[in-house]
Write a structure and sequence with these properties.
The chain is mainly beta and 166 residues long. It is built from four helices and eleven strands; from the N terminus they run αβββββαββββββαα. The protein has helices at residues 2-8, 76-79, 152-157, 159-162; strands at residues 21-29, 32-37, 41-45, 60-66, 69-75, 92-98, 101-107, 109-117, 122-123, 136-142, 145-150. Strands 8-1-2-11-10-9 form a six-stranded mixed β-sheet, with no helix packed on it. The model has no long low-confidence stretch (mean pLDDT 88).
Length: 166
C-alpha cells in the first residue's frame, strides 16, 4: 500500500527562481516620480513647524524640533531650481540619515513602498536632461511611470548641498 501511495502521489512543485526585487520609497518631486533606498530614510513626517535660520540659502527652510532633535529642513525642489514644495496636505518631510547628515527633505508627495523586478523593469535614463537626474543612479518603469532611483549619498557629497550659507 505504501509503494502504491508513492507512485500515485502528486509530486512536489517545481522549484523556480524568483526574480530579484528592488524595493524603495516612492515620492514625487517637481513633477518627477522618484524612489529612495529604504536604508537612506529614517522616517516620513508631515512637515513640522520650521524656524528660519538667517544667512542661509533660500532652499534651506530652517530648523525643526523633531522629538527633541534639531533637524535642518531643505526644500529639495527649490534646491534643484524648481518651484518650491507647496504647503499642501500631501507634502511630506523625508528624514534622511546618510553618513554625518541627518536632514529633513521636503517633497511634494510620498507614495509609500514600491517594488520592481530588478531585471525586467530597469530602464536606461542616459540622455535625460534635468538637474535632479545627476543624483539618479537607475530607473524602473511601472504602469507607464518612469521611477528614478534617487541617491541621497550622492546628494550629501555634493559641495553645493553642503554649502548652505547665502
Amino acid at each position: 500500500m505504501q509503494a502504491q501511495a508513492r507512485i500515485s502521489a502528486p509530486g512536489l512543485p517545481e522549484q523556480t527562481q524568483a526574480a530579484p526585487l528592488w524595493s524603495g520609497l516612492g515620492f514625487r518631486l517637481a513633477g518627477l516620480s522618484l524612489l529612495v533606498s529604504l536604508g537612506q530614510i529614517a522616517e516620513v513626517l508631515v512637515s513640522p513647524e520650521v524656524t528660519r535660520v538667517p544667512g542661509t540659502k533660500r532652499w534651506v527652510k530652517g530648523v525643526a524640533n523633531v522629538r527633541g532633535t534639531l533637524l535642518t529642513v531643505i526644500d529639495l525642489a527649490e534646491y534643484f531650481g524648481k518651484p518650491s514644495v507647496s504647503a499642501s496636505d500631501k507634502a511630506r518631510l523625508l528624514v534622511m540619515h546618510v553618513g554625518e547628515f541627518s536632514t529633513g527633505l521636503l517633497v511634494d508627495e510620498v507614495f509609500g513602498l514600491k517594488h520592481f523586478d530588478a531585471e525586467r523593469d530597469r530602464r536606461d535614463i542616459a540622455g535625460l536632461d534635468n538637474a535632479v537626474l545627476m543624483h539618479v543612479q537607475a530607473a524602473y518603469m511601472q504602469e507607464g511611470t518612469l521611477w528614478g532611483v534617487f541617491d541621497l549619498r550622492s546628494l550629501t557629497e555634493s559641495l553645493t548641498f553642503k554649502h548652505v550659507a547665502a
